[in-house]
Amino acid sequence: MGRGGEDYGKRENAIAASSEQETFPAWARDVKQCEEKYQVNRELGLSSAEVEKRRQIYGWNELEKHEGTSIFKLILEQFNDTLVRILLVAAIISFVLAWYDGEEGGEKEITAFVEPLVIFLILIVNAIVGIWQESNAEKALEALKEIQSEHADVVRDGKKLSNLPAKGLVPGDIVELRVGDKVPADMRVLSLISSTVRVEQGSLTGESEAVSKTVKVVPANSDIQGKKCMVFAGTTMVNGNCICLVTQIGMNTEIGKVHSQIHEASQNEEDSPLKKKLNEFGEVLTMIIGVICALVWLINVKYFLSWEYVDGWPRNFKFSFEKCTYYFEIAVALAVAAIPEGLPAVITTCLALGTRKMAQKNALVRKLPSVETLGCTTVICSDKTGTLTTNQMAVSKLVAIGSRPGTLRSFDVDGTTYDPFDGKIRGRPVDRMDANLEMIAKISAVCNDAGVEQSGNHYVASGMPTEAALKVLVEKMGFPEEYGSSSGHGSPQRCCQLWNKLELRIATLEFDRDRKSMGVIVNSSSGRKSLLVKGAVENLLERSSFIQLLDGSVVELDQYSRDLILHSLHEMSTDALRCLGFAYKEELFEFATYNGDEDHPAHQLLLNPSNYSSIESKLIFAGLVGLRDPPRKEVRQAIEDCKAAGIRVMVITGDNKSTAEAICREIGVFGSHEDISSRSLTGKEFVDHPDQKNHLRQSGGLLFSRAEPRHKQEIVRLLKEDGEVVAMTGDGVNDAPALKLADIGVAMGIAGTEVAKEASDMVLADDNFSTIVAAVGEGRSIYNNMKAFIRYMISSNIGEVASIFLTAALGIPEGMIPVQLLWVNLVTDGPPATALGFNPPDKDIMKKPPRRSDDSLITAWILFRYLVIGLYVGIATVGVFIIWYTHHTFLGIDLSGDGHSLITYSQLTDWGQCSSWGNFSVSPFTAGSQVFNFDTNPCDYLKSGKIKASTLSLSVLVAIEMFNSLNALSEDGSLLTMPPWVNPWLLLAMSVSFGLHFLILYVPFLAQVFGIVPLSLNEWLLVIAVAFPVILLDEVLKFIGRCTARSRYSAARKSSKHKAE
Fold first, then answer.
1. What are the pLDDT digits (tens) for 919-968?
2. Domain assignment present for 790
3. Where do the segments described as Disordered lie (predicted)?
4. Do 375 and 401 sit in the same domain of this protein?
5. Distances (CA, A) of 519 to 241, 584, 612, 616, 1019
6. Taking a C-beta distance cutoff of 8 angstroms, is the pair 775, 763 a contact?
7. Do 871 and 905 belong to one domain?
8. What is the arithmetic mean of pLDDT over 434-453?
9. Do residue 650 and residue 694 come from a single domain?
């Protein structure tokens, strides 16, 4: 069999094997059934021969490498754009004509080649930028591979193999996992070696806490969070060790499914709303250019093709190839005039400036077009853990015992992070700590395996987040002065260190699922042994016989006190707080002389975890705390801003329903007493919902808890189908497919995994939801500014088209050559268009509803306005050309200083027949230091002699476009209410553009390249006189626009409503 056939066979086997595996739910079968299914003995493991056999079927334990788009295909894709194609055709035609004209030599040759070369240069730069952006897209899949484990401890052939490369695992392998290990494949837990095993799987499931694992079976239809007897590839062991059986490897693991979903989502990436608009505009432009070129061709066909009628039939055709190519060049000039070549560059510049502004607000943009897409975001789908909350457990309530039995004291604890200086305990007596609070602080500090340390500007936890939160509480409680010593001052764990010096830990009673508590035996500074215990409140109360009062005295725990504590526990649980109780015991007869020595009889009691419950009996209950992953302080205001801006917020989390609902009420997604039964669903309930789209269309906030990656993707997909523009936030591996699918994927910079960051369009440097809202405001401002410069550039291009069309229609010599138009479009128009990107944002920008993503860039009224302006530009540029040939004075300005000869308007329009005019002669004229003489051929006065008239036309065009940029400051606002100095950058840009124009006029070499000559002062006065009225004309049109705005707005609303229905 050939190699391809062999691969095909393997692939078929793998598919068959994976489907067979998927029909076997290992989590719903007991350990014995799993061993039988995978034909393995946990003591011996698989044999080497069996491993090879299975590898032939299942392949390697690694994620597939999808082939990226080839560089050739990427290059071709860059030309899959209407504007780019028109430019390409124009450049090729220009090049061919330049080659043809090159035989004539001289000045024509230089100018003719500049144009196609400049266009080719624009296209090359555009393609390079495009390719660079595209090639970043596939990095998300590479980052996912780094999450995979490198090595594993495996039992094979009855021997334990340490550090076996994880890619060599096959289903049926027996693997031992220890604390700190990265799980190498999806596995069924066979047995726990330690009393407890906890796994941090939040990056895959979105859960805010580490999850305890068990060997017990769970229902077959459990969601990923419910599979308590399974460990998943890419997650991390944080506590204990266990023996597991590999059930799925490579692409069949949960992380492999995420990999497939990311790849699938990256295949379905859509263009941004702006790109769609520009593509539509390009198509309309192509049609308009085609029609105008055809009209120009038809109007001038008589100049290069003539015939005579003989017997009613056309005969004796005469064709002039030279004239034909001349009018062909005019058609090319039309195409160059109609396309805003500078537009892609200006849009890129404006978006790049926007990204810099956003970076200052902690939003790092990875893909430029997403800046604009942010502006029309209608729905933000936010993860809860780490985005709306801090992803740092914190104690928010402390309940201590009162001064007499049957009384409790409750304290609110401020602070939302692991920073011990963030917040304080409210209502606590400041002068001294009572004995009961001392005991709570002592247990929290000593019965604890976590740590808190400073990393840069923030604090990070090592170990279990709940234990780290208790250490932060101890620091907030302070240290009793009577114990003296304040060494370690300045350390984030100063008080905890002092408690641990006073109470030396000599033994640990590990946490287990049955008794739900952890205990430590300490050698107290008083010389006595005592037991300090923390754990689930109900379980501690069951094993407690006494209670410690405020002054430290111990009384019996009566039923009333017990009920009071349980009532307090119930209230805290209702607020979605995770509760922990504290208790202690001072009479440890068996351990009175124990000091950690293994030979001591009491040590035998500690070796068997089944003794722990009896050791932790007859306890003295001291108090309890409520912990949670608290919401960020600024989120509530950000959600209010979203509501004002017409943006809906949906919370999608892997956490449980009651916790998520409590947080959503607190941050304002839901009202504090609102009925949310129809607004809060689990992922599973949403999948089973009969009308998912209508559920998503509800106004106001929505919550989806216990959501898996596929649920997130489905929600994003349905919202996009409904025409919403979706921003999706996330930090975990599980969020990556939905981040890729959303219009804007927003990843967390601090807590986010590399996978999420690579799949995103934007990264939040501070992991803060309110940063997204600020970025949306910035996106809206950028879009408004882009509209301003698109309007400006398009109105300028309409003017150029009108100019060429009028030239052709009137039959006068060509006023401007293509290279001059290209210069105006690229260089002269560029700075003012870019400066319009600095227009200040409207004050009420976040009080308006989001624009529809299908709103047109240019409304019918704006198009009419710019047709009127364009027509004026055409008349002004052609008019000044005609004035120079036919008048010596205009508006009192003397134009005779250069000594040029006048001709009649009819001669100018019939210039092609010049050779047949009798006694036609012209006198020489000057331009700067040059003298133009036409003694040998007077008809050259209408060809090479048009250089002065052509310069006037070009200068009028530049001046009009500078004045027109002032018109573009506001869509409908007068220059009296929005004067030019509101955007000083625009005034600077106008100066730069005029400076560049002077440069090509007064530097001889450049003047030769562009076919122009220097102008005198009077000629400049004529230019200003002809150009300035464009401001007055647009002021009149803006006034009409303001008067009719209300009726046009209501008509547009009706039509969009009709469309939606």
1. 788 888 888 788 888 878 888 888 888 888 899 999 999 999 889 888 88
2. no
3. 1-22
4. no
5. 20, 9, 9, 8, 96
6. no
7. yes
8. 91
9. yes
409: nearest Cα among 623, 628, 626, 627: 623
| One-letter identity of residue 127 | A
Q: How far apart are CA 299 and CA 319, in angstroms?
A: 16
Residue 299 lies in a domain: no
> How far apart are the C-alpha atoms of 343 and 83, rounded to whole Å?
10
d(CA 125, CA 345): 9
Q: Residue 526 and residue 521: Cα distance in Å, rounded?
A: 14
Which of these, 696, 692, 537, lies nearest to 624 by C-alpha position?
Answer: 537
Reply yes or no on whether 383 is catalytic.
Answer: yes
**More confident position, 174 or 800:** 174
| 448 in the same domain as 379 | no
What is d(CA 269, CA 264) in angstroms, rounded to the nearest whole number? 9
What six digits make up the tokens of 549? 């009062």
Q: Longest Cα pair distance anywhere in the chain, in angstroms?
A: 135
Active-site hit among 383, 434, 735, 743? 383
pLDDT digits (tens, 9 = 90+) for 553-580: 999 999 999 999 999 998 888 887 889 9
Per-residue confidence (pLDDT) for residue 19, from 0 to 100: 46
654: nearest Cα among 165, 226, 84? 226
Rounded to the nearest integer, the mean pLDDT of the chain is 81
**What CATH number should be reported for the domain holding residue 475?**
3.40.1110.10
Q: Say yes or no: 647 and 588 in one domain.
A: no
Is the Cβ–Cβ distance between 958 and 824 less than 8 Å?
yes
Mean pLDDT, residues 112-127 = 70
Q: Tokens 């460990």 sit at which residue?
A: 231
Specify the higher pLDDT residue, 911 or 487.
911
Q: Which two tokens stand for residue 950?
A: 């052509």
Taking residue 526's Cβ as centre, other Cβ atoms within 10 Å add up to 10
Beta partners for residue 152, in sequence order: 164
CATH number at residue 937: 1.20.1110.10
- Residue 470, class by beta-carbon neighbours within 10 Å (0-12 exposed, 13-18 middle, 19+ buried)? buried
**Helix, strand and coil percent figures for the chain, each rounded to 5:** 50, 15, 30
User: Residue holding tokens 């949306």?
Assistant: 776
In the Cβ-directed half-sphere of 824, how many Cα atoms lie within 13 Å? Answer: 29
H-helix or E-strand containing 705?
strand 702-705
To the nearest 10°, the Cα dihedral for 974, 977, 979, 984? -120
pLDDT at 322 over 60: yes
3-class DSSP assignment, residue 446: helix
Q: How far apart are CA 739 and CA 75, in angstroms?
A: 26
Cα dihedral sign, 834-839-840-846: negative
Give the DSSP H or E segment for 584.
strand 578-585
The interaxial angle of helices 435-446 and 494-502, nearest 10 deg, is: 90
At 1008, the amino acid letter reads: Q
Rounded Cα distance, 418 and 458, in Å: 8
Q: 431 and 400 in one domain?
A: yes
Look at 209 and 812; give whichever has higher pLDDT: 812
Domain residues for the domain of 212 are 31-65+155-267
What pTM value is reported for the model?
A: 0.64
Query: In whole angstroms, what is the distance from residue 51 CA to residue 40 CA?
Result: 11
Q: State the pLDDT confidence band at 149, using cuts at 50, 70 and 90.
A: low
Which residue, among 1014, 908, 1045, 1037, has the nearest Cα to 951 in the 3D structure? Answer: 1014
Contacts of 925 (CB under 8 A, 6+ apart): 898, 899, 900, 901, 931, 932, 945, 948
Q: With H, G, I as helix, E, B as strand and everything else as coil, classify residue 676.
A: coil
Residue 277, exposed/middle/buried by CB under 10 A (0-12, 13-18, 19+)?
A: buried
Q: Which amino acid is at 774?
A: A
Q: For 1007-1042, how does the pLDDT look when each residue is reduced to its tens digit (9 = 90+)?
A: 887 888 888 888 899 999 999 999 999 889 888 887
Residue 432 sits in the same domain as residue 549? yes
Q: Do residue 679 and residue 582 come from a single domain?
A: no
**Residues 705, 680 contacting (CB under 8 angstroms):** yes
How many domains would you assign to the chain?
4
| pLDDT reported for residue 702 | 92
